[in-house]
Amino acid sequence: MVSDAHHSPAAGTTLVGRGAELGLIVDALEAAKRATPSVLLVEGTPGLGKTALLDVAHELARERGFAVCRAKASLVEREVPFAVVQQLFDHLPDEMSPRRDDQAVQHACDVIAGHVDDREPSHVDRAVRSLHRFAAELALHAPLCLAVDDVHWADVPSLRWLNHLAHRVAELPVVLLTTRTPGIRPTDPLLMAELELRSRRVRLPFFTAENVSRLTEQFLGRTPDEKFTAALLDGTGGCPTVTHHFLSVMRDRSVVPDHNAVSTLLRPESENLGQSLLARLNRQSPELVEVAKAIAVVEPSGLDLLTAVLDVGDGETADRVRQLGGMGVLTPDGELRFTHRVIKNTIESAISYREREDLHARAARFLHHRRAPAPVVAHHVLRTSARLGAWAVDVLSAAARTAVGEGDPRSGAKLLTRALAEDLSTAERNDVVLRLGLAEACFDPQMAVVHLEEGMAGLDDPATLLKAACRLTQVLYFDGAYDTASEVLRRTRAVIGQDDPVAADMIRLLERVTVPSAAPETRQVDFRLIDEREWRRGDARGRALAGLVAEDASSRGVDLPTCRKAALAALSGGTAAITQDPRLVVAVLDSLLRADEAELALRHSDEILFEARRDELTLTTLLGHALRSRAHHLRGSFREAVADAELALSAARAAKLPDDHFGQVNAIDALARAQVALGDLDAARNALRPFDGSRELPHTWHHTALLHARGAMRMALGDTEGALADQLECGERLQHWGRPSPTLRPWRSYAALAHLRLGQPKPALDLALQELTLAREWGAPTTIGRALLTVGVATGGTSATPWLTEAESVLRRSPARMLHAEAHLELAATRWEKGQHDIARHHVAEARALGERCGVAVEPGERLHGLTSAGAPPAQVPQPAGPTQVARHDPRINALLLTPHEHRVAGLVLDGRSNDEIAHELGVSRRTVEFHLTAIYRKLGIRRRTQLRAALAGYTPRG
């Protein structure tokens, strides 16, 4: 039994996993000593260790007293008669030299010496017979082992002699060992086939995990873990040559065999290994190397493209592919795929830059001539810097249009950047530059400004100009460059004129929500005068207009129903339709949050983040996390809000945004507010450190919002005067810009609390009442509930009870659970002071329950000193009903729980409409209808459609 592992110090060879093959060789050697000859043909793909096996066989034969003669056939010598024979016998020791008195032996010696160069068949026949006699004479002195590597390249006369010997070896003590690579066309296929028939064929397999483990032990002197073995086997494809190479490198560098070692070594070593493997392949056939390189670079799907790239005939290409398949380089199924990625990677690494470019250029020309799809042709154009002409520009532009349309602006920008390397006219360049800027706005705003401004110069097409102006304004808005944004919009409006009134109104509306200004001209357009059909069209322009309508309504705190409808209309094409427009993402999600649609905002922010991360849209990803943080904050999920805000800030820093960029400031604002809500004041102060209290913040929308967050932190830290100053400054700016409503920031409530802490009740109550008036005009429960709560706190005493009671009632319909908990605590304190201790305990219990749902511990304040921690109300105290409890008693109140849009959906359900019919009627997606139904069921405390009529008994559907 021969060991599975064998080390040959003389040959410098280590074999593992070749025990069965070595066993066959040893059996053949032992049989030859008993005058039973053997002919073995070892087959294997390049790199499987055929030559290494011959090295060990050579040593085993010498150990058993054999005379060993070796030769290696090669492509360059296949035309030299008896070249292999001459290698076998040219350096025999003197003691083995046969007697020269035999004419046949003398003739054989002349052949071996190269003195006979006659190619006539009759002379070759004589030489073959003489050489057989010569070998027989040698075998009389000692058993003979003849080893021929790469026998498929052997010259024809040598092949004839090998076949003659295999046929007439009879009872001579001879072992004939040969190796070949399958798939390679031999010098003479018929002679090779004849030798195969007379040989015992031995096929070398690839390494197994056990082989890799044992070889690692031999090389590195330690047993590897399973992860290392699996990683090395996967990375090398089980190829012995590749495995030996990497283990040798590890031994030289004293690298520990863990799974990290494989990943760090495979990449840097691939180039050297690639050259080695290509050299092996080149020894077989230089033409095969060119085929392998072309397949590795071009990755053709069929022989037609490969043939065009190689510039050879169809039949020749097919023949070379078959050879590579037989050699194990390509899969045998004809799919032009490498058998393992390590082979592809190593071949790729040895291809020069110029070779790559040339191959891709050839592929692009052929595919364009065949009218292949633009993205397929552009794939190759993109990978060559050669100027290909006008057709390449058309292909790149078409492929970029497809990429951007599928939500991949980065790829679109790469294609358009490549188009700029071609020879373009001025008009063509402006068009490409403009489209490049539109794509870059999603991930590289600085370059987007440069390209959009260049592309818009001299542009007179109204639709294109409007799209470019909106995108450029978006980028300038995020940078806080309001004056430039305003100038861009005014120039655009001047070009468009009155030819498109809706577009002109859209520009005015965009300027109003973008540029903070008290100028009268920004108030000349009213979204309520814009035909609703224009922003419910469902196309890109309609969705953009709907987003502007929703944002304008919500930021000014007017017309909540229209705001909701417009936000949903902007989302009618799905989140993927707006993901590439960060400005629209902010407008829509902000509007939903101001309208108390927190669940809907969370759902869409999840979808937007999925799309943005997939397409590497840095700015949209950043804003998506910041907006989702705000949604969590509204719901009282402060820990989740902190987590999302930190992700947003991390994305902003990774993008290297300036400190005052909208994305950076927005993320800090969300993070600080959430940390203050959690009571982590040190973290909030650290987040706001770049904008400490001594710094006057710029007059931008986002810095003004940050004033509100900074004021909340200063209040929590005990800096009441600083907090009041920040809130009043925030409010002064918003009012000056025509945004008095608390929908943007409830600065009056926070300022009122600061006034109270400073002992100034009158200005506190005045601010609270102002906020309540504006909140009722808006109509969202959270905004009204907060204002009522502030009025109650500012009023104080027994007079506060009605305000606080109404606040608690209104906040039941709000997603703001922690604000609802505050209302309960204020009511508890008021009841406790009036001696109504049981009711106070009930309110505290409700507040704690809400806090538990938010993951926040709610405790009574000093005003509730003496309240027991049990908190359970006595049975005789009537418990105020939550939304579900009320719904079971009074269907009229049930209807009040629903938003106007939910009213409409519920009415259509009661009319017997299906979800698809409702979606068509409302101009929204089916998923939006399903989301509204889920919200309706939750608010009414039901689980299915069939329960809706009973829950809304007596409710008349609204048309």
From TrEMBL:
Pfam family, one: AAA_16
GO biological process per UniProt: regulation of DNA-templated transcription
Domain HTH luxR-type stretches: 891-956
InterPro entries membership: AAA_16, P-loop_NTPase, Sig_transdc_resp-reg_C-effctor, TPR-like_helical_dom_sf, Tscrpt_reg_LuxR_C, WH-like_DNA-bd_sf
UniProtKB keywords: ATP-binding, Nucleotide-binding
One CC-aspect GO term: cytoplasm
SMART domains named in the record: HTH_LUXR
GO molecular function terms listed in the Swiss-Prot or TrEMBL record: adenylate cyclase activity; ATP binding; DNA binding
Protein name as it appears in the record: Regulatory protein, luxR family
Organism taxonomic ancestry: Bacteria, Bacillati, Actinomycetota, Actinomycetes, Pseudonocardiales
